[in-house]
Amino acid sequence: MASNYTNYLTYREALESGSTTAVNEVKSFLTEIESQKHLNAFLETFDETALAQAEVVDQKIKQGTAGKLAGMVIGLKDNLCYKDHSVSVSSKILTHFKSLFSGTAVERLLAEDAIIIGRLNCDEFAMGSSNEKSAFGPVLNPVDTTRVPGGSSGGSAVAVAANLCHASLGTDTGGSVRQPASFTGTVGLKPTYGRISRWGLIAYASSLDQIGPFTKAVQDSALLLEVMAGGDEFDTTSSQKPVDAYASAKSEGPKKVAVLRDALESEGLSPAVKARFIEIIEKLKAKGHQVEVVDFNLLNQMVPTYYVVSNAEASSNLSRFDGIHYGYRSEQATDIESTYVKSRTEGFGTEVKRRIMMGTFVLSTGYYDAYFAKAQKVRRLIQDKTKAIFQDYDFVLTPTTPHAAFKLGHNSDDPVAMYLEDIFTVHANLAGNPAISLPLGTNEEGMPFGIQLMAPFFGEKELFGFSEEMMKL
Amino acid sequence: MKIDNSIVDKVAGLSKLEYKGEEKEAIKKDMERILDFMDLLNEVDTEGVEPLKYVTEGMLELRKDVAHTDITKAQALENAPSKDSDYFKVPKVLSK
Amino acid sequence: MDKAVRDKYTVVIGLEIHAQLNTNSKAFSSDSNQYGSTPNSNVSPISLGHPGTLPRLNEKSIEFGIKLGIACNSDITEYNEFSRKNYFYADLPKGYQITQFDTPICTGGHVPIRLSNGETKNIGLTRIHIEEDSGKSIHDIDPFNSLVDLNRAGVPLLEIVTEPEIASEEEAYEYLSEVRKLVRYLDICDGNMEEGSMRCDANISVMLNGAKEFGEKVEVKNMNSIRNVKRAISFEINRQIELCEKNVEILSETRGFDAPNGSTIQMRGKEGVNDYRFFPEPDLLPYVVTEAKIETIKAEMPMLPNELLAVYTNKYGLSEYDALNIIEIKEIGTYYNQIVSLTSNYKGAANWIMGTIKSHLNKFGITIAEFSVTPQHIAEILLLIDTHKISNSSASKKLFPALLKSPEKTATQLAESLDLIQNSDSDDLAGVIDEIFTKFPGETGRIKGGEMKLIGFFMGQIMKASGGKADPKMTNKLLMQKIKS
Known about the structure:
The structure holds 3 protein chains of 3 kinds.
Chain A: H1 8-17, H2 22-35, E1 42-45, H3 47-63, E2 73-77, H4 104-111, E3 115-120, H5 154-161, E4 167-172, H6 178-184, E5 187-190, E6 210-215, H7 218-228, E7 256-260, H8 261-264, H9 271-286, E8 290-294, H10 299-317, H11 336-347, H12 350-363, H13 368-392, E9 395-399, H14 415-419, H15 426-431, E10 435-442, E11 448-454, H16 460-471
Parallel strand pairs in A: 2-3, 2-4, 7-8, 7-9
Antiparallel strand pairs in A: 1-3, 4-6, 5-6, 5-10, 9-11, 10-11
Helix pairs in contact in A: 2-3, 7-16, 10-12, 10-13
Chain B: H1 5-15, H2 21-38, H3 73-78, E1 88-91
Chain C: H1 3-6, E1 9-20, H2 59-71, E2 75-76, E3 79-80, E4 83-86, E5 96-99, E6 106-107, E7 110-114, E8 120-132, E9 136-138, E10 145-149, E11 156-162, H3 169-185, E12 198-208, E13 218-220, H4 226-245, E14 253-258, E15 263-269, E16 279-280, E17 287-288, H5 291-299, H6 305-315, H7 320-328, H8 330-340, H9 346-364, H10 375-386, H11 392-405, H12 411-417, H13 426-439, H14 441-448, H15 455-465, H16 472-484
């Protein structure tokens, strides 16, 4: 049964043995999605195509020709293009838009017989840390529905946490996979920048965006990465480095783990997170790993750097939503200028417009050097310092988030307070390193939170291996 | 730094967005608050530091000059808010 | 305008040319770059600016940029970055254009032009860079809507920017003609302003001779032919000088060109100039041009107009006038080159092109590409003439028309079948002359006595006797010898 799902291997055995079928799984999930619709995770389910895919999978299982992900039911964040299906990045401005092509990651999943069950709610244009900023309503945390699931990939996190599908894809630009994974008690990965092709990922910030899976088990995350990763001629920023056998990664021997002092001593850490974090450090030491506190000294600059760069890139990436060639056009459009201004003003939400304004500002004449160029330089320092740490250490360990999920409406007046939710996660996006959030904590109110592990560039194999070790702590 | 109406107007003009009344006051405040936050960047000395422009290492791979058109005209116009059988249509102010 | 007034001023002109590259596919996507297709049929999700798409650079954009740079003696940039130029326009689907702001593929270089006094002037280039074209908006078909066609969106362009070194409308005309010739010779662009494959914007200012500061610059756009560029510049120079003479301030603005009236007209003020917010294009990694790549391209470069001019005048001994004429159109130059690869009668080949061939092409309104007679044919004709097998006049009057009708035959075959092969065997010829002497003793005596006016009579008789096949030159030579002996 769908809700008993622990990991793909077990499920695959059940498919092979005939104790379940893909069609049953899909039907089961569709029913569950319907009964959990108050969570508002799914914007749309692709009932017909999913069932049709499931039928094919069941045939292939019988014939012994099924792919590596046969029968895995996956939800897609609403910013991943899937041919002939609607996609809207949870925005009014992409009303009625159907993509003419599928992204590379999606195609690779389908090629291995995965089943795409629907598209998942998110913060509009992936801008947010709570999934309260969707044009289609907030997503609720299934562990406590008065709380946020995190964002921007809130729907993707909830879909896995609430057993609405086996796994889901989100995207992570400043923590948008890892932070909701932390808030919902799931495994969330951001691969190395360039590890997964961005072809078909509706761009928010081009130099920061990466697709990342949400799963219950570390091994499933590894398996999904194995299938999706690899160079793609359609994305020139994708890496041609060979794809390792992530799913069979094993950690061997004692590791050297760096703990960032700024993170450990951060005033924003909640007592529960801090206590558990310290406990994990001790447990790792007890297992023979070398865990040391290192200075980074750029924690205060992380989030400002991130917001300057991401807002700038976003302001340009979102210019294509102009009411002319696709998407929403205002009824007040009487000429070309009003087509732009009215359609964009009406079609975009407040947060999106705020970021476009900020991005335009930091790129404009007179401010470019002080803000954008400055941020690029600080980013260089962040990357250099990170590389230096990885000369001496195998991993960097921090909490994923300073606290567990907050209440809906908590940060709504203060954009900066919301931005600081990303304080530990933006690091990996700015430097480009892979990072994973592991569901290792629960606070006094029973809310989950994650611990984050970061590895060197293209060190996903080691990352998965050690993640397995950490999950045993 | 202080954000005044002229800055908001200029930035909104470039972004093709419209701010009026209360919303304009709100965005002014937001921009000030966010810019103050971004000023934390100035705490770091970046003298002589090269800006980071690309995360992926390596050189651009070029595409061979082979033409193939994979979508039809109908598909191209499918998502258009206003179109005829050949063109995207944008309303224009009647001249004269 | 009074020359005295005009001469008080120094004219400063810079030209920006956008050359559409004649590639198969677009700059950043594989959809077709074909001109003239039905609207919105040469498009892809990338050129439509659909969400989720990313650019992929056409290798020819780089190659053609380097080619042009080599031809203009520019420096080729090693580390090429791409930038986004952000602005909104109905035919710019992404809301930004991908271009090269900081690192144009070529910097410096020059294009030599011929001035009216025969001197050469080098027009310096500031830069050549890679970018993409926008689509087209049509405003005059539908009264209520502008219509947008994105076929042209993403077509690869090279932008060529001159230093402000052009000093008159004539120089501008020469410069554009030279660039047009160059891009056609390099086979990178059709150079056709009427079809839009080459577009030009002009920046024009005037200042009193010796002034320390430049005048206010005015940009002029929408000139759709080289001739119209000249007309527009001419008008604009006069307009600016007249204003200066009246002490009226010149507004820095963008003006259009009203072709029927030959005047520049107000379009929009530069006060509203866009802040393009250039920043590095994060979706395209930098491209590094290696020495090896430059060498490969250099090795494959065709001969350029100026190089051909040198060869034609110095090596082949053609007059500059003839040489320039042949070079003017690339296909004719190629045709000529093919002839002279088969014969060393350079001048003869040139004469055939300038004379018989060109007048045929003009008469029938065809191009050399549509011309059925091949360079091989012409080379053959020249050989036949050089070996005295046919005369020049029978070649052009009889053989050439026959070849036009039957181009599948060789010149020799046709010459033989038309019985045009002349008698150039001197012994035979000597015999014929002797016979004529015997036949006309009176005239023979008179010509031997010095009445040279009888040459015509004898030539006529010999020609008649030989059935028109005697080689006139040889005949004349022998006849003179015999008369004097």
